[in-house]
Each structure stands twice: as structure tokens, then as C-alpha cells.
Amino acid sequence: MCAQPKKLTYVLNRYSPSDASHFSHVLHLLEELAEQGCEIQLVIEKPEAIPRPRHGSIRVVGMRTKPPLLRQIELFRTLRTLIQHGYETTFVRISAPASITASIAHRLFGGRSYLWQSGTTYEYDRAKPLSRAKIGWYLSSHLPSRLARRLAHRFVTGPESMVDYYVNTLGVPRKKIRLLYNDVDTTRFAPSLNTVEARATFLASRELEPDCLILLLVHRLSPVRRTLMFLESILPALASRSARRPWVLVVAGDGPERNAAEALAAKLSVQSRCVFLGDVPNREIMALYSIADIFIHPTFAEGFSRVLIEAMAAALPVVTTDAGGTQELFGVEQQAYIVDRRNPGQFTERLLELMGSPDRWNALSAENRAAVSRFATPVVATMYLRTLFE
């Protein structure tokens, strides 16, 4: 007797080939799921373009309606049709409104809905003083997310410590939670041997020394992460290293704190050593990983950081904080460069230590490349199929 085909509807909030976010990663994961025998309907709520999957078992549906409420009605009708055609499992990534819609559709027509979220921004938003903006957050974000978590048949998060976070902080029943990892394409994000020319071109284009130490930071510069708090410690310390090996800090990411970060660099007279690139399309980000010496991730709030596993796959030594599930990603050697998120001074100390210890880079690089194998896309795809079709 033949096994029932695995059919999955995957709802993605938005898609753009030029997007700096990680939504574009999903396509590679879905192609691996299809390769492992899953039939997939990818439903995109806000498509700027329609991707063309390489696997024939993936079909893409882009929502045509733009007003949010009408778009959810369109999504409901789409899901109803898919359920009737045997797609009884729907996985929604992040979007609370889409998850609510999916949960209602499945409760009416059968099957199960899964909602993925991983983040620790609740405390930041809750701590804000009462204002019109906070009321707006409560009504437009907190309540829908809370309802989405309640209605979903299964709530999905990762890594392991994020399960405890959602149980203890946001009250999600533990028996309802399923653990899934973020994935990384370890073929695309891999150490490159042909970076000498690219590195030299990058440094020369900014009139920097050819032996410059390249520090790379990739994430949104937001008050939630308190990036500026860390830079206020890091940049003065770097500025005092003028007599040692020259350095440059490359920042890929935009956000509310970018202007203040650039102003800080100018105030310290290190603006020529701080390259603020703004948002970089994810399809181009590997070029930065390939020329960097050290990856830094100064953050106060995090969930399951995809940029960290990208940096690990690219075999970069890392300095980061213990925010979210970060500690669970790394091996023994790299643990020495994970600091208390409340201590920017310690972050700076560990960064300076690592910058001055190039003999340690190879060991950290090798450990990170080995440790990231459990997040490789084929491994995580198998984890998805086991979890979603339990």
C-alpha cells in the first residue's frame, strides 16, 4: 500500500528577490522539502515578484489583494481550496494575521495549522511608557500575535531555549510547541579561497590599507537590539588602536539607529573606517562574509539568528552576546566569545582580544563550520517533514 503523499501549504508574508531580509531563503528550503518527497503550495501574501522554483512539486500563489482585510479573505479562500485538494497542513512563517486565517480555515475544513515565530521583542515593547504608539502596538501587534499563538494547532520555534521563552514569558503551552531550526545553505555560505582580489578591491575602493582587518556586522540597527549601546563602547576602543593593525567596520543593515551610529563614528573621527552600506540584498551578502576576518553580532534581543549561522557556515570567528538562543548554536571554543548582553564593555574586551589573537581564528573557523552542519538545509528539511507530518 502506497504512503499518502505529504502535502504542505507554506504561507510567506512577503517576497522580493532584492530583499535584505531572510524571506528569500525559504525557497531553497522548500526545494529541499520537495526533493525529499513533499508537494508544496507556496502562498505569498505580499509578492513583489513571483519566484520560479526549480522543483516541479512546488507551485507558487501570489495574493493579488493589497488591503490587509481583503487580502486575508483572499487567503482564506485560497486555503479552503487547497484543503479540499488534500493540503491539510499549513505552515505560516511569522505573520499573525495569516496564521489566524489559516487556523480558522483548518478548524472549519480540517487539517492543522503551524505558526513559526522566534524572537524576544515582547519585553522591549511592554516596557515602553503608555502612549499612542504603545496602544497601537498592543492592538495591532501584541493582541493579534497572542490570538495567533492560541488558535494555531501547533506553535513552532527554535532553538531549544526559545521553547522555554515562549512557555515562561508568553504562556504558550509546552505540549503545543514544536522545535524547528532555521536552516542555512552550507554550499552557498561556505569559505572561499578566491577572496584576495575581492578583498583588495573592496579596501582600495575606500582608500584603506591593503592589510586592513575587516570586521563585519549584519543586522537591522534597531533600538530593540540596542546596537548603538554596543557601538558606543566598541568604536572608542577601536579608535585607540591606531598604532596597531588598521581596521574597518563594515555594517550591512539599515534601521532607526543608523544615523546615530554614523554620527558617533564622525564624532570619534573614525567615519573613514566605518562603512555603512544600508540594506544589502541577501543574494549579495555572501560577498561580504567572504572578505571579512571577524563577524560581530552586538545585540540585546534575538531569537534564532540566521546571520549567525550564515557567518558560521562562512567559517568566520564570531563575537556575539547571549541574547535569545545564541548560546546553543556554538561549540566549546566559540563559547568564550559569547558575552552577557547587558555588558557592552565585555563585548568590546572580547572583540579586542580576538582581533589581537589571529592564531585563534583558524580553530574558531573550523569549529563553527563543523557546528553549523546540523543547520544545513537538507538536515533541517528532514526535521520539518518529521515535525509537520507527525
Secondary-structure blueprint:
Layout: E1 6-15, H1 26-35, E2 38-47, E3 58-62, H2 68-84, E4 89-93, H3 96-109, E5 112-116, H4 122-127, H5 132-151, E6 154-157, H6 160-168, E7 177-179, H7 196-205, E8 213-218, H8 227-239, E9 247-252, H9 258-267, E10 274-278, H10 286-291, E11 294-297, H11 306-313, E12 318-321, E13 338-339, H12 344-355, H13 361-371, H14 377-388
Parallel strand pairs: 1-2, 1-4, 2-3, 4-5, 5-6, 6-7, 8-9, 8-11, 9-10, 11-12, 12-13
Average predicted confidence as pLDDT: 93
Report the top-level CATH class of the largest domain: Alpha Beta
Which strand order do you get reading across the main beta sheet? Answer: 3-2-1-4-5-6-7
Return the CATH architecture of the largest domain. 3-Layer(aba) Sandwich
Sheet of most strands: 7 strands, parallel
Alpha-beta classification = alpha/beta
The overall strand count is 13
Number of helices: 14
Helix content: 40-55%
Model description:
The protein is globular and about 65 Å long. The protein is built from 14 helices and 13 strands. It folds into two domains: 6-184 and 376-388, Glycogen Phosphorylase B (Rossmann fold); 196-374, Glycogen Phosphorylase B (Rossmann fold). 41% of the residues lie in helices and 18% in strands. Strand 4, helix 3 (96-109) and strand 5 (112-116) form a beta-alpha-beta unit. The mean pLDDT is 93. The longest helix is centred in the middle third of the chain and has 20 residues, at 132-151. Helix 2 runs parallel beside helix 3 (96-109) and helix 3 runs parallel beside helix 5. The strands form two sheets. Strands 3-2-1-4-5-6-7 form a seven-stranded parallel β-sheet, with helices on both faces. A six-stranded parallel β-sheet has the order 10-9-8-11-12-13, with helices on both faces. By secondary structure, it is an alpha/beta fold.
